[in-house]
Batch of 4 targets.
Target 1
Amino acid sequence: MRITIAAAGSRGDVAPYTGLGRELRRAGYDVVLAATDTFAPLAHDAGLEFRGLPADTRMRGGGSGGRELMRTAAAFVTELGQGFADVVDKGTDLLLLSTTTAPLGWHLTAAMGTPSLGVHLQPTAPTGDFPPVVTGSRSLGRLANRATGRFALRMADRVYEPAVAQLRRRLGLPPASPSETRRRQERANWPILYGFSTALVPRPSDWRPGLEVVGNWWPHHDPAERLPARLEDFLSAGPRPVLIGFGSMASGDGERLSEIAVRALRRAGLRGILQAGSAGLAADGDDVLTIGDVPHALLFPRLAAVVHHGGAGTSAAALRAGVPAVTVPVTADQPFWAGRLAALGAATAPIPFRSLTAERLAGALGQAVRKQAYSRAAARAACHLATENGARRTLEAVRRLTGG
């Protein structure tokens, strides 16, 4: 049986599916990861076949305004919709769709009769328990939370509308808006598995049947892989350092952020590791080291704390390692996850990206590293995450769906 996982976005939106794909492959399935070309090496390293999706997923700048976000999303989806059908051939027996690809993938299932399953990294379904992830972490009350959740879905559907119309014409399907298709999927209880921990987001009791929280899907890395020698030497040369990185965020802000990071570390009396990322963080010194990409699973347990942008994957990786965090959310769902970490007690109060200063960062780092309550909360969450196996739960769902 051939399974295609279609995912698009930044590295954090794609990497978790390499671990999921690897688990499905071990179970005997042929697995294809369809993503933008940037992530072909991730697929190949996990032993998965790769298909390229059209779109430029590079994040530009640190802007988080609503209009700017909508414009960026619309341009991305328009690109993504062009040629999307080309990556799913008639040999696909099951299509697994991420949050970003589901509004397009539904129409492929309609045209080709291929069964599909949602595999989402964010809690997209409206609920009274919390507001939609794109609006931050402040609850508006149960009725307003559900209403804004519905409104957020309608806004997403508007972004996808031109791409969906073009895709349906190409597939020979009659016109249907994204919102009409979404309502049909909801009425049919289309199954969605959510790949995050119930430690951060317990399953809301008002969700419809078919929506399940299964636990994280962890990015694949070779079990034989080791940290670079320079990094091992730095880790061994003194007290546990702090990692500071913004992933695929803050492109073009590297010089300013590097200066803030180094000043904050020295003000707090801590050693630090800067992860270059898209921002291009860099600094030299006996007490600071600059690195590129390394597996979170290898590095995070060796740290005193992690400063990050609040992405879903990095938030989960810090919890898995039992390490406290200082979050600096930039955009999209990042304020939501940052708020969840703080509510859990495993992170300090979020510092909005636009409000970041060396003084604020140093103060937060001092709290995270020296107040034991943060590390104790992170350790409790790590124990909870260890009981979850998102990839195995997904494999069980695939077997139920396919009868295999």
Target 2
Amino acid sequence: MHLGPRLVVADHVAGKLSILDIRTGRTTARLDRRHLAEHAGFLALPRDRTAFVDDRAGELLVLDPYGPDHGRPAVEARVPVAVPAEHLAADRSGRRIAVTTGLGRNWTAWSDQLTAVDLAADGGPSAVRVRTRTGEPGVTFTGSPDDPMVVLRHREPGELTAYRHAELMAAAPSLPPAEPAYTLPLPDHDGHGDACDPLTGGVFAAAGSGVHRARVDGGALVSADTLPWDVGARSGGRGYYLRLDAARRTLWSVVRGGPAAPGHWPDWTNDAWWHHLDSGRGGRLGLGPGLVFRLAVLAAHVAFARVHPDGDELILVSTGGTVPAVSARLPLPPMAGAPRRGGTPWDGVQRRAIAASPGASLVAVTRGGHGEVHVFDAATARQTALVTVPTPLDEGGHLALITPGDASPSDPVGR
């Protein structure tokens, strides 16, 4: 049986999750009372699986989106983890996972818990919690496949700390403090965005001064030259998101500039920033004013959703040529409750989630508050489907798009 892409739609406010066949619009599975940790997002795993953290139940769930098509349950595994989940990442095999904790619905950092997970432990999936450092750390993996290391990216002060996953799993009960095997200071206190390269083991941390690089070498965590945000004739701003297009071995981010005050968000500038890991070539492309945050990687494009009072749009950047270029700007229907001038673009307003598969030309964008997901084909720059779900998708919800055998697990950081 040839199975097409599966779309996972999570309404983290309503506590609902649906798995749909995009080709037919058929819902293949539903989960109730599941509140996805929206900031941590979905983590792609091998064998067409995906994982997320239920922030209310305190569980990591491994989904098998194609399971219901073959008589298997949609939930393959459930593992207890510390919450509120801030970030999650996996090693190259997808067996070992790490989950960090953040603020949740609190104004100041209060949790220092890190959860290490082994999905293939003797006796079934296992999790161990330890204490590290209070904050909102990002997380990636590095090291050899036989001895993977969990790397945390801290703010205030900036620092990378690396822990052997095997040692975390061997920690005693009752939340002992964990001592890192390696540390590396970061010059910034404003880190925001993480990526790792499974091919080389390099880890990347976005901060105000650029993308900081590190790797394990000779028994130490060592740094390399920082990649600047300023490229060519375009300068200013900093990236607030970082993602790897593993097929083209390219890092992507959205560089935001303009006035700092959140109330002036319609005047923020946004550039797509890219850097090819092997050639060292890079560049920036203007996307337009407003709010652009997360991006999605397709087979031959990278997609961005831009929110602005004058109209929202989906922006497609072609990656098939020598240099990336904007290939289409597609209007998106307005959202009731969208951000307004003078207010912040994230508090008490509707947003958009975006998802794609590196094995297909499809990209999905939510219409927060309306229970709609608009699906486009980047190859034709046209909308191909409108998916509706029984909940409003307040705050934009969250999406994952899976194509059988795609390269999503090659980006082993939750999105």
Target 3
Amino acid sequence: MRLLHTSDWHLGRGFHRVSLRDAQERFLDHLVATAREEKVDAVLVAGDVYDRAVPPLSAVELFDDALHRLGALGVPTIMISGNHDSARRLGVGAGLLGRAGVHLRTDPAGCANPVLLADEHGEIAFYGLPYLEPSLVRTEFDVEHAGHAAVLGAAMDRVRADLATRPGTRSVVLAHAFVVGGEPCDSERDITAGGVAAVPVGVFGGVDYVALGHLHRCQSLSERVRYSGSPLAYSFSEADHRKSMWLLDLGPDGRPHAERIDCPVPRRLARVRGGIEELLADQALAPLADAWLEVTLTDAVRPAGAMARLAERFPHVLNLVFDPEDTDHADGALGYADRLRGRDDHQITADFVAHVRGGRGPDDAERALLRDALETARVHEAAREATP
């Protein structure tokens, strides 16, 4: 059976101040064309269909059009919700859509109810594991500790139990998670609060192929466990990514053979670093005039009108970072966003306490209170997004 594995469409998302609607439409055109030309038997979408719980109408229209076109080809689509999606909203009408070949798996309770498709070698069971927010699904899976590994492990136990009743059936799991060995980037939403986010790849033992979503770089954790990555770059940290989908042939013995299908690139991404006069004069940078550009300026003092001056030479410069090499002035010159770059919520709140107390950071008890407050806020936000 031939499968097309994709994920992390993030419909409705832009890139800095640039709309990506046209680029997302081009990707969906490419996906439908690939499904037709490669005679794909099913499309797998491993979560983060939308960029936010309540997507804009333009994003919903893209989604609706893509499903109609896949349906017209007679290609089943199996799709799970990710941490950016509202599972309840995405799952509306799942029963009716399933009859049309669009199989939405957004309810954690249904993770062991497979979509069954068949080829000349027999049936294949497709299990959809939507993003499992530990604090919200702990009761459903009856786990003592609400951690990512615990709830995903319990879900996979249900999958393996169902699969054991189907001797000789090949199996595919769709999951949206941060799996050990995966390489993250800046554009994925943090899911680390409330315990260790990464889960071991061994959690997925016993199935033939695992179609992962969440991380935006296309990568293989093993022959049977792969991330497709996002079809478009959503941060400059993805400048070196090759955006693609996995075209997968699942053989009669369940062994997968995969090849990458490149996605359309709306515009090249690049990062440059140096003093403003150096960057404006360097002829080697001339090819970057057509690129979406992030510029890191190393001048000791922030140059006046830097963005406007850079835009004269680089019309598509989108992001300006100030990182002076003169460390005597660096801390005072850095902007708020620059000071927070690369720091998680726990570090930021601890730094704030130290700042307002003249350098004395939180003690162990205070750190525990901060962790509890952050976890409570995150759970309330997840519950709010899950509410229709």
Target 4
Amino acid sequence: MTMPTAKVTKRAVDALELPAEKQTILWDTEIKGFGVRVLPSGLKTFIIQYRNIEGIKRRLNLGRYGVLTVEQARDQAKIKLGAVARGEDPAKEVYEARRDMNVAEMCNWYLVEARAGRILGRKNLPIKASSLDKDESRIKTHIKPLLGKRIVRHLTPSDIEQMQSDVKEGKTAKPRGPGRGGRATGGPSAASGCVGTIQAIIGHAKHKGLLAKHPTEGAKKLAGRKKTRRLSVIEIEMMGKAMAYAERNGENPVALGALRALLLTGYRREEGQAMQRAWVSTAGGYVAFPDTKGGAQIRAIGPAAVRVIESQPEIVGNPHAFPSELGSGAFTAVSACLQRVCKLARIEGVTPHTLRHTFGSVAGDLGFSELTIRAMLGHASQNVTQDYIHIDEALKLAVRRTSDEIERLLALGAARLETLQIRHMKEHECLAA
């Protein structure tokens, strides 16, 4: 979106409203081709736009507002556009310099551009911050140490595959640092992820004109192993028994609530933990997520899961269904609680994704179709712009029946614990007598 032209002054730049998406440009009325661009993030950058002697449209960043004053930017614009009038191309040096970017420089370029919303990902939307955080971690931990100094346009598919082998074999493994993150171990999953990240970065660079061709196209990526682990009926009952025992022995009730909600909904860990009470419609039987891995979605939720949410403590100023004890954030340690419960139940190989797969598998056991199960898990398109009243009633029924069945199995496990405790009490009474 482009605003009407006006003289670019400090007051005009300060008054620029942030666009809801993409960008807004205010073009100067005195110097043709000089303007200031503002992004949704609030970043304001002075730019010039012109056509070179070949008729190719160029846009060149002069500098960020705050680093440059309006007067300094106007002076630079006059110099650069004067060069254009003489048949020169001020952006040519920039474009040629980028052709010889090394991998580290191109990764830095990507992170800056993507975080500013100027690189689009899935569904032609800006790449999510969580995805960029993951990319940045791979870049810092694996890609830069192995390929950082290499010139991008000289790379070959075999270079990418060698990087993948090195990460897989743990050559970039390192101990845990002082921050919150865990230690970098490498392995097949990390290796495959690094290939995906660097190939995407090079692809974006080519799309933006920084490269004439994708030099590593065709590099082979390790096939991922499909996660098929689910909890059996017996294991669900064992989880119920272990959760009841943990509850009576001091386990964090919010952690157990979040864990139970994941079991009863099949939601992704991030979705369940970050859920806010305002998103939940008890009467409508849905949760309106403003953002998920597949974008904004309406997801059906059964009464059993709603009861878990409603039983959680409400903290003033904290909107989350599973609130953190401190601040206004969400509880984020459900994975640690899951591992403690699994240890009590003597169940191995369980992750939050296992709970999601279990929900889908129980739905399959109940006779629901693969298409219905995909919709239950949020794989099918359910855009929030649709009328909430018209959420598929059959889908709600499927979610409710699946949730009720898992709740029943958990309750059976808890009842077994109760029976054991009553038996032990009677044994003690007999001994005392």
